[in-house]
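INFO batch 0412 | record 1 of 1 | parsing
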Amino acid sequence: MINRIVLVVILVPLAIILIALAVANRTLVAFTLDPFNPGNPALTTEMPLFFLIFGALAIGLIIGSLVTWIRQGRYRRQARQKALEAQAAREAVMRQHPQGTALARTGA
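INFO prediction complete | emitting C-alpha cells
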C-alpha cells in the first residue's frame, strides 16, 4: 500500500517533470573534453542537452551515494562488532543455562 502511494505521489510527477525537461531541451549542443581547443573534432561530440543534464544528475547521484557509503563504514563496522558481542553473550548465557533448565520468571 505504501509503495503505491510513493509511486503515485512522488515517482509519477517526477517522471512527468523529467519527460517535460527532455522534450524542452532536445536541441543539440557541443560537448568537448578539450578546454584549450574547443573545435577539436576528436574530443568534441554533439548531443541533446537533456543527455548532458541527465548525465550530470546520474554522476552526482553515484558520487554522492559512494561518498555516503564510505563515510558510514565505521557505523557498519560498529554494528558488526556489536552483533558479534551480542552473539557471544547469548552463547555464554546458553552455556550457563543448558536447554533442559528453564529460567524462573518473575512477576507472574
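INFO post-check: The first strand starts at residue 28 and ends at 32.
INFO record closed
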